[in-house]
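At this stage, I wrote out one protein, both as residues and as discrete backbone shape codes, and that material follows here.
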Amino acid sequence: MILSPQSAEAIATARADKPKMRERDLAEVLGIREAEILAADLGNGVRRIVADPARLLPRVEALGDVMALTRNDHCVHERRGVYTGFHAGTHASMVLGTDIDLRIFPRHWVHGFAVERAGADGTRRSLQIFDAAGDAVHKIHLGPESDIAAFDALVTDLAIADDAAFDLAARLIPPPVQVNEEKLDELRSSWAAMTDTHQFVPMTNRLKFDRLGANRSIGAPWATQLPVTAVEDALRQAGAQGLQIMVFVGNRGCIQIHSGTVHRLEPMGPWFNVLDPRFNLHLRADNVAEAWLVRKPTKRGDAISVEAFDKDGQLILQIFGKRAEAATETKGWDQLADTLAAGVPA
């Protein structure tokens, strides 16, 4: 797809009228995709780069301390750190650093851009990846301590021609919540027999349930529906108790994980926020349509999560107790989860 002069002019006019508006919000106002906003600015602080994570992410470590951002329509997850421990895979890749922890699905890393924007505090630099439809999958924002020379070298080495094909696919429409009533008994037996949380998705795929459909179908003791405020309650209680937790937020192309404590929790209008120095979370709490407490059996005891879903049945985020390889103790989180479930009418 090549933007028409009329489209490029409309984007430029809108940007001039709303200079402080984020590109994602500007795209929504214009009824286009966020990647189109960047494509309209090629040569004006924007360059196209290779999106393949196997080529891009090993180079990101050289940038030093940066901010990783992964979001979906209702939640933004921001984590500062260094990209270390990249493991490539055809169907799934990983970044397993101390601070940056990602699960990556390479087929959705389609369009890449390097962006430099002038701001009040100097030039802001970022690497931005989009899926086939032009929606953001993952972004990497440089900070004051990042290596600008390494950024310039990365962009030079991974740049692709401005006029390379830029075709956008249609957005995928979320399917209805999937339940297979003929397989309910097998779901119950297979769920109870799990020994690792990673068995959950293959199990539900095989039995033709999606995540929310499985939660609704399995019932107690494995899944208990909670009030929609449970996510906020869980974060507040975890923060007050200083619990080590894991917060997962993702989209089709990337899941980003925070492991550690949370401290500064602030609601701002419809947003519920974690505003810590190295971890920020921004949740549109009013878009949580269902919340669930979910137990999955493992060899090391039940893995217990609080999960939030939107009105279409799409997962917004998950919270677990942090469980290190050498430490299986999540007693504090497990007790917190029991407290949340205890308030639900039988």
Notes: The radius of gyration is 21 Å. Residues 5-84+109-158 form a domain with the Heme iron utilization protein-like fold fold (CATH 3.40.1570.10). The chain has a mean pLDDT of 94. The first strand starts at residue 46 and ends at 49.
